[in-house]
Amino acid sequence: MSENDLQQSHGVHVVHTGSRQAAPVLLIHGSGASGACWAPMIPALARGHHVVTIDLPGLGHSAPVTSYDIPAQAARVAAMIDALDVGPLVVVGHSSGGYVATSLAEQRPELVKAMALISTGPRLEALLPQRPLIRALSGPPLGRLIWALRSDKLIRKGINATCARQVDIPVELVADLRGLPYRDFVDVLRCNGEYITECSVPERLAKLDVPLLVVFGTADPRWDPASAQEYAVVPGVRIEMLPGIGHIAPLEAPEETAKLVLEFAERA
């Protein structure tokens, strides 16, 4: 038996899918996005798990925040987990959502049963030269102008610029991105950079005792796919490469990505 319901907890928008009695899996989206990015994967995950999908604080349908500092984001997620009494969980982070997942494990290791990182850049130096639209959006004044003029078509173009193939983009994801102020988008990117500049993700996770799955697309245009091997410093890590897939595996290869996460979750 499955169920779907929405709620707010500590300012975090939460969607529950699947049986509340099943093993819980938490999905954390990436930069400036929302939980809608996971939509193609959720049906497969929810067949045997209680899937908890969130919009990070300040993003999507969650309450506004004054800062997107990664440790602060993780602390809010921890408070949400405590309030809902759904831990420990298998935590799945896409892109910079993996930074929040990592910080959560650093702060509250008892809440994280295992972790899967999808297209999570390990350190700032692994960032590739970005495609023109993405590069333009990264800083004012041009980025602010493009943001002010953005249409659904332009938002879809921006998302597809990080993919290796054209994808079907959930309407809700487009709407959530359209509602994000430009200053918040820039602040998200700044806070992400600060977190991985202070210490790389593999270095952070090597200090923890958390089972880890790392998934990367071999055609990721945002982060150097070879940088996935930097996670080899984490004891027992499983690294999986998806041939021909770009940065957004949950949209580009939802079935294959869900299968990897499910296999990992069953063994965790």
Structure report:
The protein is α/β, with parallel strands linked by helices. It has helices spanning 42-46, 70-84, 97-107, 132-137, 142-148, 152-160, 171-178, 182-198, 201-206, 249-252, 254-267; strands at residues 4-9, 12-17, 23-28, 49-55, 89-94, 112-118, 212-217, 238-242. The chain is globular, with a radius of gyration of 17 Å. The model has no long low-confidence stretch (mean pLDDT 92).
One letter per element, helices H and strands E, the order comes to: EEEHEHEHEHHHHHHEEHH
Strand arrangement within the widest β-sheet reads 1-2-4-3-5-6-7-8
Q: What is the C-level CATH assignment?
A: Alpha Beta
Number of strands: 8
The quaternary organization reads as single chain
Shape: globular
Q: Main β-sheet: number of strands, strand sense, barrel status?
A: 8 strands, mixed
* Helix vs. strand class: alpha/beta
**Alpha plus pi helix count:** 11
Low-confidence stretches: none
What is the domain tally? 1
CATH topology: Rossmann fold
Any idea what the CATH superfamily is called? Answer: Alpha/Beta hydrolase fold, catalytic domain
Which architecture per CATH?
Answer: 3-Layer(aba) Sandwich
- Assign a percent range to the helix content: 25-40%
What is the overall pLDDT average? 92
* Strand proportion: 15-25%
Short description:
The chain has helices spanning 42-46, 70-84, 97-107, 132-137, 142-148, 152-160, 171-178, 182-198, 201-206, 249-252, 254-267, and strands spanning 4-9, 12-17, 23-28, 49-55, 89-94, 112-118, 212-217, 238-242. By secondary structure, it is α/β, with parallel strands linked by helices.
